[in-house]
């Protein structure tokens, strides 16, 4: 009991000292819109909060056009053609599979069906029925089942395990239809986390992915979850996995940003350490991620994922100008960590964006001084 009171006292003392420190430094805070001291993100050409796209981390106009067509007509053939023309080993195919599966899952949640009513996501069921040998449809179906398990059931419960076992079988079927495609195995990484694969089973699955796409950033992010402390690993195992990926990353690869994701997954719930976001471990991971986005191909679809997470850490670390540089690239889309962990991703992103603008201007910045 005495230890508990000591901890409570430390938290209260830390809060008081933080407020005093902020007053001395003139720290940045948010004020009501329209207040004379309010910085206006619109001055930088940023999208309004209600215009932010929460579906994707960055632009993919081909996907959005096809997704709109499929949902409007309930005809799967546009999705089938888009996936057939997307490189199997590339990051974009994985993102598109996730997007189509997510759209079907969301439709089903909004329209579960009933007497005389067609359930949402019917186009995916028709796709599987009419084209059972289509590899794209099989991969989307497997990912759909995974998303349904996480969204509708509790991990460890019987219904969760039943859906995940079905997803595992669907992954196997999708893999048989496209032997060189890493996507079915990447989908199974989430199954492995949900069903609690042994480390030997997980390593076997991971080798299947490395054989097909050794530098796949999306696969590494999915695998990182398994090694995290909250699932089947530890902080040390997650850091080791991320640092090994960064160390072997080829030139121009975003794998150099993996340690930043490992740090994010193990952020302390209560931070009693002053300047945590300026600490050596965070600073090193941020620098690695900055180097990764600066050296990566401009059209790499995983860049947006890294830049969104950089905004979170740069704002927390009060590195306002660098945060603004990232916002100028990614603004408009918020379908990425850390915003998707919030019940309102657009609002969460808007808060960090407003803090970045306020901090930038408090230190002499303006729209005229920000590089375009």
Structure characterization notes:
The chain has 372 residues and is mainly alpha-helical. The chain is 62% helix and 0% strand. The protein is built from 16 helices and no strands. Helix 7 (158-177) packs antiparallel against helix 8 and helix 11 (235-247) packs antiparallel against helix 12. The relative contact order is 0.10. Mean pLDDT is 88; it is low at 1-37.
**Measured distance between first and last alpha carbons:** 56 Å
Overall 3D geometry? globular
Order of helices and strands: HHHHHHHHHHHHHHHH
Helices, by number, come to 16
Low-confidence stretches: 1-37
Share of helical residues: 55-70%
Mean pLDDT figure = 88
Give the beta-strand count.
0
Q: Over the alpha carbons, how many angstroms does the gyration radius reach?
A: 22 Å
Overall SS class: mainly alpha
Summarize the structure.
The chain is 62% helix and 0% strand. It is mostly helical and 372 residues long.
What descriptors fit this protein?
0% strand
